[in-house]
Design goal:
The chain is an all-alpha fold. 28% of the residues are buried. The model has no long low-confidence stretch (mean pLDDT 86).
């Protein structure tokens, strides 16, 4: 219980201090572009806890989830195939490097022209950016699989799905998780950017509309909400990762104790 309280204090301590500094620094602010934090929090409560939550926040989270999951499935599947097959990896590498060098943000107008301004284009934008950390980490994780275990699988004739399930994916899972964590932050950024162009709803759309209408407290409230969403997603991912990789974290802890 004490450990949980200490971790909670460590996680929330700095944000609380920063909010307090922000509150007192802007308490009597008359700057149009830097309104008092109390005004921002008032707008936050009015805007995002009621109607706009379903109208703008939920559509954004749906697009993020769809794009992220599509990128995770594609990145892991292709990464396993490329990691296991040297010939295929060498053949695909030039194309992958060329496509990877194109920033997903540059493709937003092009994708909007092809797929329209609906959810599909925004999901494609998110997936196109999230797939790379998952793909590259999966390839490296598969290539770094334990050679002794690989030889054991060959010796006992363990191939195909059984080898993937019991050897390749468990060995690569720590690096796959690292790629998924990186992809989550990239997905959040691309979610906002995709909604700033040719959109009719979403957090990015709302923030741009507030900025264009000089509704500065409302704009800051949207930015604050994005930070909260990012924090919640990061904590949620960390909890899931800890449960899924419990065996790996336990092994690392045992190795540190032995050293």
């Amino acid at each position: 219980m004490k450990t949980l309280g200490l971790r909670l204090a460590q996680a929330l301590g700095l944000p609380v201090v920063l909010l307090a500094v922000w509150w007192f620094a802007t308490l009597d602010s008359t700057n149009f572009y830097s309104p008092p934090l109390r005004d921002i929090l008032d707008r936050f409560r009015e805007l995002w806890l009621f109607a706009r939550f379903t109208d703008d926040v939920l559509p954004s989270l749906w697009r993020l989830a769809a794009g992220y999951l599509a990128a995770a499935v594609a990145g892991i599947a292709l990464g396993v195939a490329l990691g296991l097959t040297r010939t295929l990896r060498r053949a695909a590498e030039p194309v992958l490097e060329f496509v990877r060098s194109i920033p997903p943000t540059v493709l937003v107008p092009v994708i909007a022209l092809i797929a329209g301004i609906g959810d599909t284009s925004k999901i494609i934008v998110i997936a196109s950016g999230c797939v790379w950390p998952v793909l590259l980490n999966t390839i490296e994780g598969v290539r770094a699989a334990d050679e002794v275990m690989s030889d054991t699988c060959r010796t006992f004739g363990i191939r195909g799905a059984a080898r993937l399930r019991h050897h390749v994916l468990p060995d690569a899972s720590p690096q796959i998780a690292a790629g998924l964590r990186q992809a989550l932050s990239i997905g959040l950024i691309l979610m906002v950017i995709s909604e700033m162009f040719a959109a009719t709803d979403g957090l990015g759309f709302s923030i741009v509309q507030f900025q264009r209408n000089f509704s500065i407290p409302e704009m800051w409230s949207g930015i604050l909400l994005l930070g909260i969403i990012g924090f919640v997603l990061s904590v949620t991912f960390a909890v899931i990762e800890k449960r899924v990789l419990r065996w790996y974290l336990g092994l690392r802890a045992a190795q540190r104790k032995g050293a």
